[in-house]
Amino acid sequence: MKNNIKKIENIAKDVYKKLGSGHQEVVYDKAMQVGLRLAKIRYDSQKVVELIYKDHYVGEGFPDLIIFFGKTKIVVELKAVGAKLGVSEEQQIKNYMKLLKIKDGLLINFQQPKKEGKSEIEIKEIV
Is pTM, for the whole model, over 0.70? Predict the structure, then answer.
C-alpha cells in the first residue's frame, strides 16, 4: 500500500513543481488525471456518491479521484487553499471513504501563495 501511496504523492509533487501555486482546484485535478494516465494508473473522477437517510436520497457527494491498484482503492480529495488543511477537509474525505467502503485516502492541498513566504504542497494520509 505504501508504494501505491508514494506513486500518487510523486505525481502530485510533480504537478505542483511544474504548475506552481495560484491555480484553481480544477486545474490541479486535470493535471493529476494526466499524471495518472501517463503512469497507466486506473482511476475514476468525480464519481457520484449518493447520500441516503432512512432509505431516502438526500444528496450526493463527488470525491475528486478514486484510484485503483488492482483490488485496492484509494480516495483522493484535492484542495487549493492558502491555509493548512483542517478538520472539515479531513471529515469530507472520511465521509467519502465510509460511503464507498474504502480504507485509505489521501488529502492533497496545492497551497495557494502566502504573504509570509513560499507555499508548498500538503499531503495527508487518511486511514
Answer: yes
Q: CATH code at 111?
A: 3.40.1350
DSSP states of the chain as a string? Answer: -HHHHHHHHHHHHHHHHHH-SS--HHHHHHHHHHHHHHTT-EEEES--EEEEETTEEEEEE--SEEEEETTEEEEEEEE--SSPP-HHHHHHHHHHHHHHT--EEEEEEEPPPBTTB---EEEEEE-
Q: How many domains does the chain have?
A: 1
| Tens digits of pLDDT across the chain (127 residues) | 689 999 999 999 999 999 999 899 999 999 999 999 999 999 999 999 898 899 999 999 999 999 999 999 999 999 998 888 889 999 999 999 999 999 999 999 998 876 666 778 999 999 8
Q: Which domain range does residue 39 map to?
A: 2-126
